[in-house]
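Quick one: co-fold with flavin mononucleotide.
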Amino acid sequence: MADIRGGGDVGVRQRLRGIEVFARPLPRFVPERAPAEPVALFLDWLAEAVAAGVPDPHAMTLSTVDASGDPDARVLVLKGVDGAGWQFAGHAFSPKGGQLACHPRAALTFYWPEHGRQVRVRGTVAPGSAQDSAADFLGRSATARAEALLGCQSQYLTDPAEQGRALARSLAAVEREPSFVDSARTLYTLAPAEVEFWQAAESRVHTRLRYERCRVGWERFPLWS
Ligand SMILES: Cc1cc2nc3c(=O)[nH]c(=O)nc-3n(C[C@H](O)[C@H](O)[C@H](O)COP(=O)(O)O)c2cc1C
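Sure, here it is.
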């Protein structure tokens, strides 16, 4: 593919327009055959992404809003999914943790390019129990725990060399006390109010199905693409 740089703004625009989307064989999605609830379909699509070798298939964008109502978003890894919702972990004192404390509603977006599939989940977020958060934290590698224990996520880094030194000190502390838990490291669950499945088609007749929570389970609505 041609380099998109060069040629000024018009050149970039033209080259971006020249990048093909969905020009590959894609699965067909038949909403009439979709299960009655969204977790089963999500797990089917995730399993197919894993089987197809999609890199980081469990990576998702978490969108939140801050105290001023301004949106924010970042990529996290999915920690689990069950009837209660979609789980992710983060530091309670990070920007996302602060945003969720003041406005506990969020959206998750998954994209699996190999299959041309997107899943969007919206709902209410609640922090898990101290035990569940601790179990998730202790299940991580020593290096990941050492990094989490730095507790400076998203703060200004004035001396780049300090980060490596701080991580080495933190790793030594983790090795001395492997059962130490950072109580601010939190396992959150997003309880879905709606979940939308989007399947691209080369024909551009994309297929969308939204599950909306109702009093007794889920209702399913096909959507225009
Ligand atoms: C693939 C990928 C996975 C990530 N997983 C996590 C994660 O599970 N938890 C986390 O706190 N940050 C994770 N990050 C870093 C976040 O995107 C983000 O930089 C960090 O959480 C700070 O966000 P905040 O300033 O909005 O709180 C990940 C980044 C990428 C690219």
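If it helps, The radius of gyration is 21 Å.
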